[in-house]
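Render HTH LytTR-type domain-containing protein in 3D.
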Amino acid sequence: MPEPLTHRQLPNFALPFLIWLVLTLMAAVAGPFATFDVLSFSQRLMYWAAIIGASVGLSCVVSAISSREEPMRWVLCWIVYVLAITSIVHIVNSLVFTVWSGWGQFFYLLGIVALVAAMVHSLVWVLERRQPTVEQSGDVDPIDKFLRRLPLDKRGPLVRIEAQDHYLNVVTDAGEALILMRLSDAIGALGPDVGLRVHRSHWVHKKAVARSAKQDRRDVLVMRDDSIVPVSRGHKQAAKAAGLL
């Protein structure tokens, strides 16, 4: 019998799709911001599907290219996100509502979008922080405790970890699985001795590195499962010091 699909195994698109679907249906039924009075249910459904779809899609893109460990880049990405969403909604509203126009409406909308974005991402941060963390102890191997997060059939010698949006793709000799956790938390749980962060989105187990190589003049690590892991310039010296390059 196939193993039930859990949140740890959901593909990257599943959670954003569910968020889009639920929020679209809720907005279409409730009709916030006077859309209930001026639009039919089918029109509200199309209107909110477009607005929320653009918001969720851009949010996924920003999450993929930003990092809280680079505060200025993270803030800049979300400023661009808020301006982009505000512009999209302003244009759609100008086409749908005859009374919608002018900079006053734009800045009013900008405030609403910024407030909602702050609330949503604060909620995401809280949910991430509530994920159980691996406790360190002297008598239990931290890797074994970390691997308990994986489905039984995916537990094996750890190879590498890759950050994907709010998830981590954990790769072992037995396969790979997604878990909801931040890369920095995973690195803290595993400790500094067994592995090394070689990129903003990549951590490798030192003993799982087969060799180093060059790919398009950039340093990469070839793992024992033949996967390729990039080494960023910012982590190159640490990789050299660890004997990986």
